[in-house]
Amino acid sequence: MNEKHKKQSRKTGRPRKTDPANIRYTISLNEEEHARFLALFDKSGMQVKAHFIMSCIFDKTIKTVKIDKGTVDYYMRLTSFHTQFRSVGVNYNQIVKLLYRNFSEKKAAAFLYKLEKQTLEMVQLFQKVVKLTEEFEENYLKKQGEK
């Protein structure tokens, strides 16, 4: 009867690992060491502390992510500015078509002269933005990459 019972019993649950990790080590940290450990763990971007510790022990690369909110904000605003600049270009083309379609050539040329002056001011502004962005990258982003 025991033989029949053994054959009828089914194995349930998760399949066993071929090489289970069942050896454990413990360490004790004081408050300062613990705070330092947590700071390194947060910078690594890993989700599991055990994986972080294993990567530290076996000299695997530790990924450190530092997010500078000022840089992110600057690039978000720069992207927004670029989007607005592109939409101005689209509107510019539409205005030129409408001027030549609805006005005489002389009147359209007068309006285009005013539009051209405004465009030159916008180009100068955009050149300043490009220069500021280059300075920003040179002064802040390259320094962070060297650290």
Write up what this structure looks like:
By secondary structure, the chain is mostly helical. 72% of the residues lie in helices and 0% in strands. Helix 4 (69-102) packs antiparallel against helix 5 (105-146). It is elongated. The termini are far apart.
Helix content: over 70%
The total count of helices amounts to 5
Low-confidence stretches: none
Instruction: Please give the radius of gyration in angstroms.
Output: 32 Å
H/E order of the elements? HHHHH
Distance between the termini: 72 Å
How many DSSP-defined strands?
0
The biggest beta sheet, please? none
Question: What fraction of the residues are assigned to beta strands by DSSP?
Answer: under 5%
Shape: elongated
Give a topology summary.
Blueprint (H helix, E strand, L loop, with lengths): L1 H7 L22 H14 L4 H9 L11 H34 L2 H42 L1
Helix pairs in contact: 4-5
